[in-house]
Design a protein that fits this description.
alpha/beta, binds zinc ion
Length: about 200
């Protein structure tokens, strides 16, 4: 496909950088974009051009939002006494499917991963510790794989220290069985997630 016009090839090369997209799919998508009505393509490129500046992190939970506070944190019907800690926004979206959970979240945007030089200070942990005042339960919903478990254990230990040093009385739980080991929240169906949520346990 090296005979593609350069501008089309350039678009295709960008698309090829997306997760799970190979050269053939990228070429197919580039052709699709070329066939779009001008107005649609303009609207799409406008959205792309402003994607970064329009997307911020919620000041409370670090979820992505267009305003300072995300739609979940600003929803008065959500139970603010329950915080579920997730690795990233895609995990939050999975938890939001099927109305299985009415609490709020804390998005770490990563997990502790020493092999890749990601330590506790590289994820949004201190912001979680600032939110504990009125909280009754912290649900650790990092993924059930090695790094996710290590991250959950680190947070649990830190939360114990906070409890010892203050008069706060929140409990710490971890999602229970239901999630396959080595599984990923992002790909779990909501029934599996509901089970895991129901079976969450004290994390000691
Ligand atoms: Zn928020």
């Amino acid at each position: 496909m090296s005979s593609l016009p350069k501008s089309l090839k350039n678009v295709s090369l960008f698309l090829e950088r997306l997760p799970g997209i190979g050269e053939r799919s990228a070429n197919r998508m580039a052709f699709y974009l070329l066939r779009l009505p001008d107005a649609d393509l303009k609207a799409f490129s406008e959205q792309l051009a402003h994607l970064k500046e329009r997307t911020k992190r919620c000041k409370i939970c670090m979820n992505l939002a267009e305003s300072d506070i995300c739609s979940i944190c600003s929803d008065a019907t959500r139970d603010k006494k329950r915080i579920t800690v997730v690795e990233d926004v895609l995990d939050l979206l999975s938890m939001e499917t099927g109305n299985i959970y009415n609490g709020v979240y804390h998005v770490l945007h990563g997990r502790i991963d020493p092999l890749n030089h990601i330590g506790p200070d590289d994820i949004f942990l201190s912001q979680l510790f600032d939110r504990l005042k009125e909280v009754e339960e912290v649900i650790l919903a990092t993924n059930p794989d090695m790094e996710g478990e290590a991250t959950a254990m680190y947070i649990r230990n830190k939360l114990s220290e906070v409890k010892e040093a203050t008069s706060l009385t929140f409990t710490v739980t971890r999602l229970g069985y239901g999630m396959p080991m080595g599984g990923n929240l992002e790909y779990a169906d909501y029934m599996t997630l509901r089970k895991a949520l129901e079976n969450r346990r004290d994390f000691k």
